[in-house]
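Exam revision sheet. Question 4 asks you to relate a sequence to its structure. Input first:
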Amino acid sequence: MVRRDAFLDVGGFFAPYFFTVSEVDVATRLIGRGWDVRYFPAAEFEHRKAPGGRASERTMRLRVRNQLWYFWLRFPASVAARRIPAYLAFDLIECLYRGVPRAWSRAIAEAWRERGRVREFRDPVPRSAVRRAELKRGRLHLRLLAHMVRRRLSGATAESAV
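Answer key, structure tokens:
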């Protein structure tokens, strides 16, 4: 949920993303503009995922591409230069885990090839806003990665015992 005036103040969703990362980008821009952003873990919502629980190649490609654009557009260059490799490593592992390894390389190529679509919109937020917007996101990604590895290893162990 977001206040209409706040949403409009930051320009709404960034159209070139089309899919994924939009809400993180809006939250980062809201924080950068001085709006208060809160997380309510008890809020109920329905998150619809791809049938069968597997992310499609297209979904993963767009997510990786958009995340590259997000870091470049919203972070100071020195921060983006550190975050991009870390998130690319995470995304490579996730693409491998989900069985769509080509999505990763295609996303990087597409982000570079289409960089002209987003170049003029670069508007980094202050470092303090980056810290607030990204406070727990990196830790969450590490926990997700550990969960994926544990799940894969337990599945492999169970299969080898059969």
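Marking note for examiners. The chain has seven helices and no strands.
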